[in-house]
Amino acid sequence: MEGGSKRLVVVSNRLPVALSNEGGRWVIKPGGGGLVTALAPVLKNRGGLWIGWSGAKGEVDIVDPLAEFSREAGYSLHPVYLTEEEVAGYYHGFSNEVIWPLFHDFQSRCNFNPTYWRSYLDANLKFAEVVVRFSRDSDYIWVHDYHLMHLAFMLRNMGVPRSCGFFLHIPFPPPDIFLKLPWRAKIVRSLLEYDLVGFQTGRDRSNFISCLRALLPEASISGRGNEVRVTLLGRTSRLGAFPISIDFNAFANMASSGEVAQKTKDFRDALRQRKILLGVDRLDYTKGIPQRIEAIRQLLIKFPDLRERFSFVQLAVPSREEIPEYNALKIEIERLVGEVNGQFAQPGWVPIQYLYRSLPRADLVAYYRAADIALVTPLRDGMNLVAKEYCASNVSETGVLILSEFAGAAGQLQKNGAKLVNPHDVEGVAKVIHKAFHTDIADHRRNMHRLRDSIRKADIFWWVDSFLQNAFSRHLNDFPPLEG
Ligand code: ADQ
Predict the structure, then answer these.
(1) Which residues face 25 on adjacent strands?
(2) For ligand 1, atom 38, which residue shows the shortest CA distance?
(3) What are residue 444's phi and psi, to 5 degrees?
(4) d(CA 360, CA 370)
C-alpha cells in the first residue's frame, strides 16, 4: 500500500461548479443543486478531492481556472472530459431518460435505448480512469448518485483496489418498477461492488433488497437496520439508510442577518403584506409543479374567502434544458400560470408570481423567511432539501410546511409537525392549505419549533459523519486538512 494519510475523494457526475465561456475565456463559479448544496460545506477545509464532469463538451482548457477555484474552495477539483456523444448517450440518455424517470415511477417516460447503456458503461470507465490517476490506495472513494453506479465495478475490473462507498440521492424503486429495466441484474451486481451502498430512506433500501432477492437469489442477506450485509461470491457489501440534510446553521444565520431581514420586508411590502405561499424547485416533472398550480386553482374555486388574501410565489430554477421534455414542461407551467392568473386576477392582485431563474442565496433565504406556507409537493423525491431549507430559514417559527408523502423527507418530518399531502389529490392539497390559514398560530409555532429542532440535530454534518462512520468507523473530523 502506498504511504500517506487517508483522504476523501468525492466523485459525482458534475463538479461543484458552473462553467461558462465569457468572450473566449472560461469562467468558473460555485454551482447550484442538491448535491453541491449538501457536500460543499462538508469538504471545505476538510481536505480531499472532487472528481467530476465540468459540464462542457470536449477537451476544454480549464486547468488554470479550476486550480484557482480549488485554492479558494479548500479542496481540489479534477475534471472528467466528456465528448458530445458521451454527453448525449450517458448523461441525457441513460442517466436522464432511463434511470431518472424509472427510479421516480415515470416508466412511460423511459427510453430503453441500448446505445445509451453502452455509452453509460464507457463513461463510467472514463470516470474510473480519472479516479485511478488522482487517488491512492489509502484513499476512500465516495461515489455519488445514479450516473455512476458502475464505477466500483470498473475499478475492480482494472485491478485497482480502493475502498468505495456509494450514495444514491434519488429513490430506489420497488421490484414491479425496477424489473422493467433491461440491464437490471447488471446494475444490482455493480452496486454490490461498493463496500457500502447508502440510500436516502429505509424504504429505498428495502426496495433494493427486494430487487436483489428477485434477481440474485444466490446472494446471502443478513442483519437489520444499518447493519444489513449482502454476501455474493465471497464479497460482502453493506446497505445503509442515511437521510441527507442541509447546513442548518448556515441557513438559520443567513435568515437572521440584516440583509435578509431587509429583503424579506421588501418582498412582503411588494406583495402588500398578503400571506405568502411558496414553491421552490428545479424545473422537473418529478416535482409536481403543474399539480401544485392546480391545487392553487382549487383553493381559489373552493374557498373564495381566500381570494386576494395571498400570493403564491413559485420559484423554478432552469434544469436539463437540452432535453425536449423539460422544455415542454416549462411551456405547460407557463400556460397554467397564465390560465389561473387570467381566471382570478383583480386590479392590484395576481394570485401566482412565477420566477424562472436561479436566485442568489440571500434572495432565496428571504423568500423562505417571508413565506407563511411552503408547498413542497413532489410526485416522488429522494429526500428534498427545499423542505429542510425552508424550516431552517423560518426563524420566526410561524411557518407551515406542507409536504408530499412521496418525498423522502416525509417519514422524518411528519412526526415532527409537517402536514403531509398526496400531491395528485389537488382538492385534498387545497383543503390542507385552507386549514393552515385557519389554524391557531400557537400550533404553527409548536410544529415549526419541533421541525427546526429535528433538522438542526440531523444536519448535513451529521449525515456525512453517519455515512463515513458506517463506512469504516472513522468520523468526519478524522480526515486531515488537505496537503500541499
Ligand atoms: P434535487 O432534485 O436538485 O436534488 P432538492 O433536494 O430539492 O432537489 O434540491 C434542490 C436545490 O436547488 C435546493 O438546495 C434549493 O435551494 C436549490 N434551488 C431550487 N430552486 C432554486 C432557485 N430558483 N434559485 C436558487 N436555488 C434554487 C437531488 C434529489 C433530492 C435530494 C438531493 C440531495 O432529487 O431528492 O434531496 O439530490 O440528495
Answers:
(1) 22
(2) 169
(3) -60, -45
(4) 16
Enter the C-alpha cell of residue 181.
429495466
Q: How do residues 266-312 score in pLDDT, each as one tens digit?
A: 999 999 999 999 999 999 999 999 999 999 999 999 999 999 999 99
- pTM of the predicted structure, to 2 decimals: 0.95
ipTM above 0.85, yes or no: yes
pLDDT tens-digit series, residues 410-424: 999 999 999 999 999
> d(Cα 261, Cα 392) in Å, to the nearest integer?
15
Question: Which CATH superfamily is 248-457 part of?
Answer: Glycogen Phosphorylase B; (3.40.50.2000)
CATH architecture of 8-244+462-472: 3-Layer(aba) Sandwich (3.40)
Is-same-fold flag (8-244+462-472; 248-457)? yes
104 lines ligand 1 (CB under 6 A): no
Is residue 34 in contact with ligand 1, taking CB distance under 6 Å? yes
Q: For ligand 1, atom 2, name the residue with the nearest CA.
A: 34
Of 231, 222, 178, 229, residue with least CA distance to 204: 178
Q: Is 247 in the pocket of ligand 1 (CB under 6 A)?
A: no
What residues does each domain of the chain span? Answer: 8-244+462-472, 248-457
Most confident listed range (27-41, 56-70, 134-148, 294-308): 294-308
Determine which residue's CA is closest to atom 4 belonging to ligand 1. 34
Q: Is the Cβ atom of 74 under 6 angstroms away from ligand 1? A: no
Distance, CA 35 to ligand 1 centroid (Å)?
8
